[in-house]
Write a structure and sequence with these properties.
Helix content: over 70%
Distance between the termini: 53 Å
Mean pLDDT: 84
Oligomer: single chain
Order of helices and strands: HHHHHH
Number of strands: 0
């Protein structure tokens, strides 16, 4: 955890924390829908579709880590694992399933 000295040197600005969380949320929701479209077009069923989604979210998290956070998680997030790697995974799941089933039904009909 961050101690008082570190907070005095590098204070946490709540607006920046909210902005970073909003950017991560937008990226996750958009990519969840795109993964659903890809799963539906590929015709993935059952566990294969969910594994595709989980692997996709890991890849997106790694890309955010490299491209947006510049490999310095502590600088942009208070709790890097929760904010960068685990947040919004379940909320994006509903968008994924919705677009997955829609495109699967359209392609296979």
């Amino acid at each position: 955890m961050i101690d008082e000295r570190e907070l005095a040197i590098h204070p946490i600005v709540q607006e920046s924390v909210q902005h970073n969380h909003q950017v991560i949320s937008n990226i996750r929701n958009l990519t969840a829908s795109l993964f659903g479209v890809a799963s539906g077009i590929l015709g993935l069923e059952s566990y294969a579709g969910f594994v595709f989604y989980l692997l996709g979210t890991v890849v997106v998290s790694a890309l955010i880590y490299v491209l947006r956070a510049h490999r310095d998680q502590r600088r942009y997030f208070q709790s890097p694992f929760a904010d960068l790697w685990a947040s919004e995974v379940l909320s994006g799941l509903s968008s994924f399933v919705l677009t997955w089933t829609l495109l699967y039904g359209l392609v296979r009909a």
